[in-house]
Amino acid sequence: MSVPRTGAPAARAVRPTPDGHGAAGIRVADALRTSILDGDYVPGERIRQEVLAERYGASRVPVREALRTLEAEGLITLVANTGAWVAQISLAECEEMYQIRERIEPLLLRLNLPLLQPGDVAELERLADAMETADVEEFLSLDRTFHLSCYDLAPTSVLGDLVVQLWNRTQHYRRAFTRVFRSEGDRSVHHEHHLLVAAIRRGDADEAERVLAGHIRRTRLELARHPEVFAGPE
């Protein structure tokens, strides 16, 4: 079944107060977020509140809080009086999101680059090395850590949350892309990671922006070659 779509943009995520139902809502949101990002659910899959309540030993109230939190993060689509689905996007929507990422992630990296310390750069190098021999799921986890850790030092009121939301909404499709480039023996993604680390180490913001924009663009173009990955569940 395809996810019913709404045109309203997702709000900035607000975590509930961690007491009573709030603490349970955070617990459910954290567990469900991990499951969605790990691919345990597919885009367009129905999420039933009663199943979550039983699985996580919670009442309906914190489950609803958790679903609202994940909706704000771009992972869930809620339709009033209808239900919840794992967020699903079309090829056209994905291309638009990647074009946004091509423009805003380099800016966010530039804002963070002066704040990255030598130890941070060494960790980025370690992650880039580890991704070369990782399996698909480990690669996705390392890749997310690699990129998002470059973005979380500079304080932003909008940009950081927007980038994370776009990463969340395209997670399933990056998984599909990862399988494609591995099956084709394409190692350019690893080369780009190392080029990015080198630019960051030099403090060369212009080159870091250029490499990152090209890195995101290449993924967008590869995804466009495989429209089948955007088919939802029957």
From TrEMBL:
Residues 1-22 are annotated as: Disordered. Transmembrane segments: none annotated. Keywords: DNA-binding, Transcription, Transcription regulation. InterPro entries: GntR_C (IPR011711), TF_FadR/GntR_C (IPR008920), Tscrpt_reg_HTH_GntR (IPR000524), WH-like_DNA-bd_sf (IPR036388), WH_DNA-bd_sf (IPR036390). Pfam families: FCD, GntR. It comes from the Bacteria. Residues 22-89 form the HTH gntR-type domain. This is GntR family transcriptional regulator. It comes from Microbacterium lacus.
